[in-house]
Amino acid sequence: MKIALVGDRSPSVRSHARIPVVVEALRERDGIALDPYWIATTDVSGLEGFDGIWIVPGSPYRDEEGAVEAARVAREHRIPLLGTCAGFQHMLLEFARHVCGLDVAHAENEPDAREFLLTPLACSLAGHEGRVRISPGTLMEQIMGEPVTVESYVCSYGLNESYTRTLAGHGLVFSGYADDGAVRAAELPGHPFFVGTLFQPELSGDGRRAHPVIAAFAAAVARQAVHT
Question: Which helix or strand (DSSP H or E) is residue 169 part of?
Fold first, then answer.
């Protein structure tokens, strides 16, 4: 089962070093053998041929449009998608632009733009852990099995809360929040798997057991591969 790891691979990004360890853990502990391919944001052609797409951390990406295009392909072709940290941010950016019709930007990528969907966090979460409250009745609740979880972050940007109503009005569900109400996870109902988290589940523990979000993504990829 082929998955695309969309992002600009770098030895300096912790999650990039951890993801292969997690993929091996999925094979050994969960019996799900994923065949990962690193895809640079500068060349995302052919993503329709993958069983799953994971937009990985590591912003700013070399090509914002490449990350956005990966999310669009996954959404429109109903390919299981996981977006973590910057991947989550660009998943939201794609949805805002192509589903909601918003002319919005990521402040890290276009600091001179007029309207920002993603803005600097009041307090950077880089290198921190924080509580995430899971929304009842969501896929995230099914995945996590508990109302509150503590997760790892390496990020400084998040969703501009003034756009949450518009995104939700077009079908996106916000399924995880910080204690102060800031969005930490989102999903798209009716899609085989379209989930994003501002936190980085790949950094959970020592990597020898896949975080529930990653295990759920892998299971969705396996289901997708059976039916295609």
Answer: helix 164-169
Side chain identity at residue 213, one-letter code:
V
Task: List phi, psi (to 5°) of 201.
Answer: -65, -20
Q: Residue holding tokens 């632009």? A: 97
CA–CA distance, 123 with 127 (Å, rounded to integer): 12
Specify the DSSP class assigned to residue 135. Answer: P
Nearest one of 192, 173, 176 to 184, comparing CA atoms: 176
Q: What is the DSSP letter of 61?
A: P
In this structure, which amino acid lies at residue 103? Answer: D
pLDDT tens digit string along 98-141? 999 999 999 999 999 999 999 998 777 777 889 999 999 999 99
Question: In this structure, which amino acid lies at residue 85?
Answer: C
Q: Are 183 and 164 in contact (CB under 8 A)?
A: yes
Kind and range of the H or E run holding 185: strand 183-187
Query: Sign (positive/negative) of CA torsion 177, 183, 184, 188?
Result: positive
- The Cα 215–Cα 102 span in angstroms is 33
Q: Dig out the tokens for 199 from the structure.
A: 């936190």
Global pTM value: 0.96
| Structural element, H or E, at residue 64 | helix 64-76
| CA-closest candidate to residue 158, choices 141, 137, 138, 181 | 181
DSSP secondary structure of 91-117:
HHHHHHHHTS----EETTT-TT-S-EE
Angular region, 38: left φ>0, alpha ψ -120 to 50, beta rest: beta
Distance separating alpha carbons of residues 208 and 188, to the nearest angstrom: 29
Q: Which residue has the tokens 């979460």?
A: 125
